[in-house]
Design goal:
2 copies of one chain form a homodimer. Chain A has 389 residues and is of the alpha/beta class. Chain A is built from 15 helices and 8 strands.
Amino acid sequence: MNDFSYITPTRYIFGHGAEEKVGKQAVVNGMSNVLLVYGKGSVVRSGLLDRVKAALADAGVSYVELGGVQPNPTDDKVYEGINLGRKEHVDGVIAVGGGSAIDTAKAIAGGILYDGDFWDFYAGKAIVEEALPIGVVLTIPAAGSEGSGNSVITSHDGKKISLRTDMSLRPKFSCLNPELTFTLPPYQTACGICDMMIHIFERYFSPTSGVEVTDRVAEGLIMAIMTEAPKVMSSPVDYEARANIMWSGTLAHNGLCGTGRAEDWTSHFMEHEVSALYPEVAHGAGLAVMVPAWMSYVAKRNPAKVAQFARRVLGVTEADDLRAANNGIERLREFFTSLGLPASLTSLGVKASDIPVMVRRLHENKGAVIGAYVPLVAQDTTAIYESAL
Amino acid sequence: MNDFSYITPTRYIFGHGAEEKVGKQAVVNGMSNVLLVYGKGSVVRSGLLDRVKAALADAGVSYVELGGVQPNPTDDKVYEGINLGRKEHVDGVIAVGGGSAIDTAKAIAGGILYDGDFWDFYAGKAIVEEALPIGVVLTIPAAGSEGSGNSVITSHDGKKISLRTDMSLRPKFSCLNPELTFTLPPYQTACGICDMMIHIFERYFSPTSGVEVTDRVAEGLIMAIMTEAPKVMSSPVDYEARANIMWSGTLAHNGLCGTGRAEDWTSHFMEHEVSALYPEVAHGAGLAVMVPAWMSYVAKRNPAKVAQFARRVLGVTEADDLRAANNGIERLREFFTSLGLPASLTSLGVKASDIPVMVRRLHENKGAVIGAYVPLVAQDTTAIYESAL
C-alpha cells in the first residue's frame, strides 16, 4: 500500500427532495449571491431549475444564470462564466445537471479568484489554491464530479484536458435525489453506469499490491452496480435501484477506491481521444468499447488482477489466470451489451483510418509511455484501438 | 434506502512517518497552541510523543500536555483538560493514542467552547455547535474515532455514554502510520480487529432494504479484515497487513457503511454494560462474546440478513436461511477464537448473578425496547446474556 493523503469534505444530501435543501446549504457554506450553471433543455423543462431557484430565493440567496453548457463542455462557457461571475460579484457557484455542468462550474469557481488564464490550472502551470465554494444538484449519475476534486474541459482545438485537485475544487455540498434520474433516457443511463464502473476499474487495475481493503471495496461497488443496473434499465422509476446507482456513482469517483495505490487511467485517456475526434460519441459508450479492449490486451502481459476481478466479481471459476481473465472480460462485454451499449468502435462510426490520429494525440497529450498496470507505447495503443474496431 | 446527510471532512495522512506531518497539519488547521492528550506508558516509552512534540515545535506550534488518559476514559480527565485548555488558551486539541485519548480530546474540544457542563452534550441536553479543531496521531486501530464524530465517555457512576455528532467533533486531520501498530500486544490487536468488524456489523444488520451498495461495501470491508487479521496476528510487523487493518478500522466507523439505513447498536450497548461492570474486560473482547450471542438470538426471528452475511462473506452455501445464518455465526465464533478472543462471558469472569444488573442498566440507559434489526425487550436481552455465559 502506498502512502497517501486523502480528504473528501463534500456534504452529501441524499434522497427525496434533496434539491430543496440547496438554499440552506448555500447559506451554510457562505453563499449569498451565486452563479447557477446548467445545460439546456431537461433541467428547465422538468421544472427542476425553477425549484432550485425557489429554494435559493427562500433562503435569501440571489443568483445569476449561466445556461447552455454542452456535453463535453468547452472553455468558452468557462470564460463566459468567469466574466459574468466577476461582474455580478458572485460568492459561490452552483451546478444543476451532470458532469458537464459541474466541471464547468468548477473551472469557473477556480478561475474567478485567479488572476491568470484558468487554463493554467489544466495545463499544470498553476495550482488551484482557492476557489469559490461549489454546490451541486445532480441529475445524471455518471461522471462522479459531484464528489470529486476533478474537472475535464475541452479546449477550442478539441483537446479534453483533466484537472485533478486535492480539495480546492471538491463541492462543499451535493444534493442527490434519485427521483431526478427517473426520466433519464435508457442510453444515457447505461452510459452513466459504464462510466462509474470504469472510474472504479481505473483505480482497481493497479500495479500496487497489499491493498486488499480498497480492492474489496472496489469489488463490492462493482457488484452492487452490476446488480442494480438491470433493474434501472427495466424499471426506470425503481427508486431503490436508482438510489443505489446514484450513490455508487459518487463513491466510484470520490477517491476512496484509489487510496493507497497507483491508478491507471489509460482506457479513459484512450476514450477521450475517441470522443474528442467524434464528439457525438458519449463518453460512457466509448468506454464500453475501449475498456474490454484494453483489458484483453493488458491481461496477456499481466493477467493476475484481471483474473481476480473475474473470479471475485463475475464468479469465474477457471484456475488459469489468463483464461479466467479472458472469461471475465467476455462476461463484462456481455454485461455492457445487455445494457444496450456498443461493442465496437465501428458501431460508433469510428474509422480505422483515424486510429493513427488518435494514437498520435494520445501520446502527445499523455507521453510516450502511458499506464501503470501495464505501461504502453504507441505500438500497444494502436493494437488496442485496432482490436476495438 | 433511507434519505441521509453525510459528511466526513477529516484529512487522512496515511503511511510511513505520518506522525511527522502533525505540525504542518496543525498549522493548516489554524492551531498555534495545542493541548496534547495521551494515555500513559507506550506513547511515551516508544518515543512517539517526543517525535510529535518535535514536529509541532518545528512547525512553530506550542503545546501543553494532558497525559494519563485511561482505557474507558472518564469525565475527570475531560474536566482537567477543559480547565487546562482554557487556562492556557489553547486553540486546538491533538490526541496521540487510541480511542480513549481521541474520545477524551473530543469531549475537551467541545467542552472548552461551551459555557455549560460538557455532559450536556452526552446527555442530549445540548448540541455541539462548535469545537476547537481536533487532530489525531493514531496508535491503535480499533475504535475508529480518528474518522468519526463520535465519543464515548464513562461517568463517575460507571455509565458509558456515547455522543454522536454530525461534523463538529470529527477530527480535522488524522495521521495514520501502520508502523506505530507493530508493537501492539496480540490481544489488543485482536480486540481492535473485533471492534472494527462490529462497527460494520452494527450498520450492516439493519432492517432497511434497498441498500445493496452499502451492503457490498460493508461485506468487502469485513472480508478484507478477515483476510488480513491472521497475517497481523502471525506477523506483527507485516506492514501491508497492518496498513489494511488500520485503514479498514477507519472506514468501518466513519459513517460510510451506515449511509442510507437504520443502524442497530444493540450488541455494542450490551457489551458496554459488561465492561461498565467489569472494567478489566476489553471492549473488543466483550464484543467477541456478545455479538455472536446477539446474532444467534435475532437470526431466529429474522435470519435473512445474517444468512446473506454468511453466504457472501463466509462462503456458506446452505440454502435455508436460518441454517445458513447459524453456520455463519459458528464460523464467525471460530474466527474470533482463532485470534485468541474469548467465546464466553464466564471466561471473562462475568457472573450469571450480574445479568439482571446489566439488563436493568441496559434498558434504563437505552429504553424498554432496543434495536432495529430485531427490537428487543428485557426478556430478550436477558436470554442473550444467558446464552453468552
